[in-house]
């Protein structure tokens, strides 16, 4: 039998691929188009929940197949929000990338960095359809890894932004992100002492927290603003969440699944911990439908629009497809003889 070699890519290898913001947006846009066209296979994330350090801990299995791109694989990804106490990332795991003709695993790659790229790309793509024209201010709450990626991607797609305000309960996370963002963003970068001063009057809001606190209330979410939350809807008060004229998700089945799980979940001190405070609002559109032009994004200057992308495996596998091709091209990674 022929030998099978699997390409192994560490986080350093994945970063060395130098995937640009524009090419990540391009490949993720393609996946969103396929989502709208229905040319994919994906299932709501199944997982296990070792909740010792935090009731919200999860390890999810995320298989996906994109017919048009010809890409398939599986992400096995953990989210452990207390990992920063051990100097470890919150999101860690593996992306397996398979051959669609033979099924053999072609590559296994570190998935945390790619997850950051794809999540910020999805939020940025949603922002291009939902943000006000000529948006000037981005307020970011949660300055960890995802927050860092969100500043990079949202300022890329919305070049009218002149001011980025940062808020984190950890001052060092704000300081680090302010320093890092200054290298590529020419406008003002303002670390804020509280949520209200960060969010006040912002045109675009991005929340990348661990979802433990409802950081965006109705006063902070002005008419005409666009908000994206990657921690489900749990960073928003029920009033803010339900004030949006348009509620957008990446995948309705995924959002409904998370809504169902959230209704059964309790915090460490036994309080209800819903994914969507006040219940899941009616879905106006998926991000793919906006991308494909099946539904309009922003139609009025005063609309509040919220996007909650839960995180789709089809976007991961699209990015893995790009990463694998780039790694072969540049000779990056190690070979592992599977048989
Ligand atoms: N929707 C998706 O596709 C997707 C993908 C990846 C990660 N996530 C989620 O995104 C979130 C962030 O992930 P990460 O890898 O950046 O984690 P991270 O731990 O690196 O960053 C989270 C940051 O939020 C800050 N924070 C927590 N509570 C806060 C509060 N009340 N106010 C201000 N800041 C607060 C923390 O101090 C930390 O700096 C997690 O909840 C993760 O599960 C979602």
Structure explained in plain terms:
The chain is α/β, with parallel strands linked by helices and 339 residues long. It folds into 2 domains: 5-115 and 314-337, ornithine cyclodeaminase, domain 1 (2-Layer Sandwich), CATH 3.30.1780.10; 132-311, Rossmann fold (3-Layer(aba) Sandwich). The protein has helices at 11-16, 21-37, 112-130, 145-157, 171-182, 195-199, 238-243, 252-264, 287-291, 313-330; strands at 5-9, 40-42, 46-48, 58-66, 71-79, 91-98, 105-110, 137-141, 163-167, 188-191, 204-207, 226-229, 246-249, 285-286, 305-308, 334-337. Strands 1, 2, 3, 4, 5, 6, 7 and 16 form an 8-stranded mixed β-sheet that branches. An 8-stranded parallel β-sheet has the order 10-9-8-11-12-15-13-14. α2 (21-37) crosses α3 and α3 (112-130) runs parallel beside α4. The longest helix has 19 residues, at 112-130. It is globular.
Q: Summed up, what is this model?
A:
The chain is α/β, with parallel strands linked by helices and 339 residues long. It has helices spanning 11-16, 21-37, 112-130, 145-157, 171-182, 195-199, 238-243, 252-264, 287-291, 313-330, and strands spanning 5-9, 40-42, 46-48, 58-66, 71-79, 91-98, 105-110, 137-141, 163-167, 188-191, 204-207, 226-229, 246-249, 285-286, 305-308, 334-337. Strands 1, 2, 3, 4, 5, 6, 7 and 16 form an eight-stranded mixed sheet that branches. It has an eight-stranded parallel sheet with strand order 10-9-8-11-12-15-13-14.
């Amino acid at each position: 039998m022929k030998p099978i070699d699997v390409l192994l890519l560490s986080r350093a290898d994945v970063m060395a691929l130098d995937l640009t913001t524009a090419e990540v947006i391009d490949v993720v846009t393609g996946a969103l188009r396929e989502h709208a066209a229905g040319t994919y296979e994906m299932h709501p994330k199944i997982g296990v929940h070792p909740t010792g350090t935090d009731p919200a801990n999860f390890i999810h299995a995320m298989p996906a197949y994109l017919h048009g791109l010809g890409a398939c694989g599986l992400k096995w990804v953990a989210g452990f929000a207390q990992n920063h106490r051990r100097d470890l990332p919150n999101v860690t795991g593996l992306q397996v990338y398979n051959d669609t003709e033979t099924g053999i695993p072609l590559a296994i790659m570190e998935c945390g960095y790619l997850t950051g790229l794809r999540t910020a790309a999805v939020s940025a793509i949603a922002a291009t359809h939902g943000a006000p024209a000529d948006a000037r201010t981005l307020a970011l709450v949660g300055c960890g890894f995802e927050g860092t990626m969100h500043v990079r991607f949202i300022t890329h797609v919305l070049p009218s932004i002149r001011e980025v305000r940062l808020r984190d309960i950890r001052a060092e996370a704000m300081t680090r992100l302010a320093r890092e963002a200054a290298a590529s963003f020419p406008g003002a970068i303002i670390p804020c002492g509280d949520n209200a001063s960060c969010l006040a009057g912002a045109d675009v809001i991005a929340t990348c927290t661990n979802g433990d606190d409802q950081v965006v209330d109705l006063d902070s979410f002005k008419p005409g603003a666009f908000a994206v939350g990657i921690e489900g809807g749990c960073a928003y008060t029920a009033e803010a969440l339900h004030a949006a004229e348009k509620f957008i998700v990446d995948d309705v089945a995924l959002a409904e699944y998370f809504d169902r799980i959230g209704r059964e979940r309790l915090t460490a001190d036994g309080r209800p911990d819903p994914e969507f405070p006040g219940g899941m609002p009616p879905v106006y559109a998926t991000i793919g439908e906006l991308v494909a032009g099946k539904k309009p994004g922003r139609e009025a200057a005063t609309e509040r629009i919220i996007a909650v992308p839960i995180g789709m495996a089809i976007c991961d596998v699209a990015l893995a497809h790009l990463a694998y091709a780039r790694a072969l091209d540049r000779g990056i990674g190690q070979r592992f003889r599977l048989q």
